[in-house]
Amino acid sequence: MSTTTAIEGIDETQASLPGRPPMNVILEWLTTVDHKKIGLMYIGYALIFLLVAGAQAMVMRIQLAVPNNHFVSPQVFNRLFTMHGTTMVFFVGMPILFGFGNYLVPLMIGARDMAFPRLNAFSFWISAFAGLMLYFSYFGANGLSGAGSAPDVGWFAYAPLTARVFSPGHSTDYWTLAIFLSGVGSIGTALNIVTTTICMRCKGMKMTRMPLLVWLYLVMSSLVFVTISPLTAAQIMLTLDRYLGSHFFDTQAGGSAVLWMHFFWIFGHPEVYVLVLPAFAFVNEIVPVFSRKAIFGYPAMVAASVGIGFISLSVWAHHMFTVGMGAGANTFFVFATMVISVPTGIKIFNWLATIWGGKVIFASPMMFCVGFLFQFLIAGLTGIMLSAAPFDWQLGNSYFVVAHFHYVLVGAILFAIFAAFYYWYPKITGRMMSEKLARWHFWLFIIGFHLTFDFMHIPGLLGMPRRIYTYEAGRGWGTLNMIVGIGAVFQAAGLLVFVYNLVRSYYKGKEAGHDPWDAWTLEWSTPSPPPDYNFAIPPSVKSRRPLWDLKHPEDPDADYE
Amino acid sequence: MGIAWSHTYAAFGGRDLTGRWGVTALSFFAREGKSKIRSRCLRVAQGVTFAAGCSLLFAGAAYAQSPTNMFDPAATPAHSIFDLSMLVLGITLAIFLIVGGMLLYALIRFRQRPEDSSREPAQIYGSTQIELSWTVIPVLIVVMLFLTTTRVIMGTQGISKPDSTMDVTVIGHQFWWEYRYPKLGIVTANELHIPVSNPKSPLPTYLTMSSADVDHSFWVPRLAGKTDLIPNRVNTMWIDPPDAGLYLGQCAQYCGTQHAKMLLRVYAQSPADFAVWVSQQKKPAQTDFSGNPTAAEGQTVFMHNACINCHTISGTISNGRFGPDLTHLASRDTLASGAIPNNVENLRKWINEPDSIKPGSLMPPMHLNDHDLNAVTAYLAQLR
Questions:
Q1: A228 part of a folded domain
Q2: Which of residues 350-379 of B touch A (CB under 8 A)?
Q3: Is some CB atom of chain A closer than 8 A to the CB atom of B294?
Q4: What's the CATH superfamily of B293-381?
Q5: Which residue from A163, A17, A9, A463 is spatially nearest to B215, judged by alpha carbons?
Q6: Domain ranges of chain B
């Protein structure tokens, strides 16, 4: 698009000079405060942990494929599900989404970097250190049975199992401190995103003109403030209990096990939205571009996002319907939880309306978004089932719940992340990803996903609780678990194709140019990859789709907003 | 997609599952569907769901076989949850068919075709009326669902305890269950015996629950939803199976290494059978082994070993409370909280190498020599 050169005109030579010594390149990455490099480091680090935690899932599925299996011991299995959950939430989900946020938010609002570049680098490195420390526990700690290593208390680490009497050794301490440190990093980055969004927008970029992605990152980051704080406080209280003789969660001395649940879930449920709002953000950008239509109902989408942010703070105890809160409290949390389906539904309807009347192009980013839409719909509907407290008395802590939240985390969030990779990879590297490999990835992964997580609901309905390392024959769970395991193999194959595509396309992909998708937001006005400080001339915008206005001067958005 | 719903819908669609509210909601959706969307779109969506459901029919066999199927309720709490769940499943299935069908329709109908011109489609930015309609309708569904759910919550948790009940105190331990009958003076472990509750003169069993160590959860899917056992806290639940039988379940809150083998067995018995069980459990432990010297020696070995620190055998010096009460051990069907059948061979194995059955359990290997092991096993096998 020659019309966009007005906001280009940047010296592209300085980004990566050829022939520099490798040490200089490494040093540059280690010391960088550039939001794009930090974003990429977040993403790379999360991808490594994704493969690690995915491998842990594979081992668990092998163990559960047949009843009374002895592939791994109970101690090893308990460590596996603890590490899988902790890693996926804190060291895959959070960093990969923060990575995209870091990379995209300044570009999309026409800023040259984040508000606090050095805080940004600090946040990344402290989070990275937290992940490494968690895994160092495999060498440096002892578990519940004394002979173990990594933490084995489950990813929500219910008290008093974490008390020193039930969890001797240091495995729980590694878990506690890793969560604590990753929380410090998360709060730093959230602070950065909020400040950047509020203070660094380019000329004409009113709040009402921000891309929806930026809005969602704003809501997500605000939620991080509110929710990580109680989690961090709980880690400090737990450490005090373990080493300085306090009794917050020490039930033998009058402490409360339920207090930990409240602290954990006031973090834990909004955390789901912390993870899913960025997924919504990606879909909000990709669906319009590949439907060739503006997003339907921008103000409603913003309102729904902010609404979800607020309501999500009042639903946490739906994780606690079985702890005996009493009929009154249960009723309140049923209502709050059901209400959140209204703004969530509004989002789905608006995406539907965006597609309606468009010209849908089924390129790889859109294919993953379509997967997202259907799977998120299903995940939401199983969520409604779980929100009906009496139904939850049966379903809670069963494999039905495991299937439900994997539908959210994999079926919705991971699919949206894959879509984001295929969509922004050309911007980040200057090269297109292979569409053929993308299709292999998509079909392998979606077949595997449905084999695994559709069938996983059923053992839950048949009474299979989560977190068991083996089960009796004759419960009707065997065949179903075998199918679940086979699905996992397909998913693993798909994931490997994806990683191969990432690497191969970097060297052999087609040249992308600066705007391969004919898109409308500011990041596509920069060269690919964008140079340091992004914009030589700070851009100025007149509508929500500045590049649409440039490409269609006869019919600019600015006339309609 | 939609497998969980279509499957359960198919499996239970033949019965009258929904209450008045459910029927109203379903017919409401059916009308909406006809007027708003073209039938072709619905047919596509139904076809997809139907295919997914069919591919899963063999899994339906598992429903029939599983002894822990929550959709095969055998007591009032499980029944009321079942009725609510069918309503919820019906509503969510309807929403899935309508929204999923519209999505599918839009994706097919509005796909880019080769013959399309290169012009961008008409840009539509929104519509307040449409936004309102898809806000108000979900709000109405939510209110309806919420009211129905509240009714079930109140019917289970909000009712006062009737006069005639069987009271049992349940205490969770790593990794076994302790049952105490305060009115009857019985203490037992791992196998809960309760009388059936005749609907004409109900005798529900009230469970008062707590934990001696970490969190556990009592879950017998055919009888009721789960209730957590939490240390330093007392929870209650009730069950009232009208039919005699064995109901299975297991601990549903991760409680440590052997969470997986903390199994639940609930024996609902006819009044006569239950009375026999009670009278037998009320007897003190057998202590006279004049006709069985091996058992008599075993009693001596037991009383001179660490066994007595953790286990109680009433009428003896053995009064530990860390492990299960063994007064009537031989009257139970299973050992190690349901992990293995109760027979002499398994008992020997459990005493000397518990890790071969339940690795990580808190029962220590006793390292008895063969002679002592035979004697102790013979003794325990006499504790009927």
A1: yes
A2: 359-360
A3: no
A4: Cupredoxins -  blue copper proteins (2.60.40.420)
A5: A163
A6: 3-110+128-157, 166-281, 293-381
Domain count, chain A: 1
Residue A63 lies in a domain: yes
Output the pLDDT for position B51: 53
SS3 B144: helix
Which chain A residues are within 8 Å of B21, Cβ to Cβ?
Answer: none
Residue B345: is its pLDDT beyond 80?
A: yes
- pLDDT at position A555 over 90: no
Q: Tell me the nearest-neighbour CA distance from B47 into chain A, angstroms.
A: 15
Q: How far is B33 from chain A (nearest CA, A)?
A: 15
Q: Considering only the beta carbons, identify the residue of B138, B213, B260 that sits closest to A468.
A: B260
CATH code, domain carrying A492: 1.20.210.10
In this complex, is the C-beta atom of B51 within 8 Å of any C-beta atom belonging to chain A? no
- Whether the bond between B77 and the residue before it is cis, its omega within 30 degrees of 0, is no
Among B120, B142, B231, whose Cβ lies nearest the Cβ of A160?
B231
Interchain pair B96, A381: CB under 8 A: yes
pLDDT higher than 50, residue A6: no
pLDDT of amino acid B163 = 87
> Which two structure tokens, joined as six digits, stand for B117?
């011109």
Interface of A with B in 454-473 (CB under 8 A): 454-455, 457-458, 461-472
Residue-averaged pLDDT of chain B: 85
> Is residue A111 a part of any domain in this protein?
yes
How many residue contacts between A and B have a Cβ separation below 8 Å? 319
**pLDDT number for residue B86:** 94
Within 8 A by CB and 6+ apart from A362, the residues are A290, A370, B111, B112
B260:A469 CB<8 A: yes
| Nearest CA-CA distance, residue B272 and chain A, Å | 30
Structure tokens at A373: 């839409």
Describe the strand order of the beta sheet including B166-173 as a list of residue ranges.
Answer: B186-189, B176-181, B166-173, B205-211, B235-239
By C-alpha distance, the chain B residue nearest A481 is B59
pLDDT in tens, B107-149: 999 999 888 888 889 899 999 999 999 999 999 999 999 999 9
Which residue in the block uniquely carries the two structure tokens 């989408």? A301
Global ipTM: 0.91
Whole-prediction pTM: 0.91
DSSP state of B312: B
| In a domain? residue A15 | no
Which letter does DSSP use for residue A533 in this model? T
Which of the pair, A223 or B6, is modelled with greater confidence? A223
Residue A227 domain boundaries: 35-559
Picking from B123, B139, B227, the nearest residue to A322 by CB comes out as: B227
Nearest by CB to B66, from A389, A462, A555: name it: A462
Which superfamily is assigned to B166-281 in CATH? Cupredoxins -  blue copper proteins (2.60.40.420)
Integer Cα distance of A122 and A124 in angstroms: 5
Determine the residue among A322, A377, A552 to mutate to test chain B binding: the one whose Cβ has the most chain B Cβ atoms within 10 Å. Answer: A322
User: How much of chain A, in percent, has pLDDT values that exceed 90?
Assistant: 88
Q: Where does the pLDDT of residue B28 fall: very low under 50, low under 70, confident under 90, or very high at 90 and above? A: very low
What pLDDT is stored for residue B19 in this prediction? 35
* pLDDT classification of B318: cutoffs 50, 70, 90: very high
DSSP A96-149: HHHHHHHHHHHHHTT-SS-S-HHHHHHHHHHHHHHHHHHHHHHHH---TTSS--
Is B293-381 the same fold as B166-281?
yes
* 8 Å CB contact between A457 and A531: no
Quick one: pLDDT band at residue A16, thresholds 50, 70, 90?
low
Are the CB atoms for B196 and B243 separated by under 8 Å? Answer: yes
More confident: B117 or B46: B117
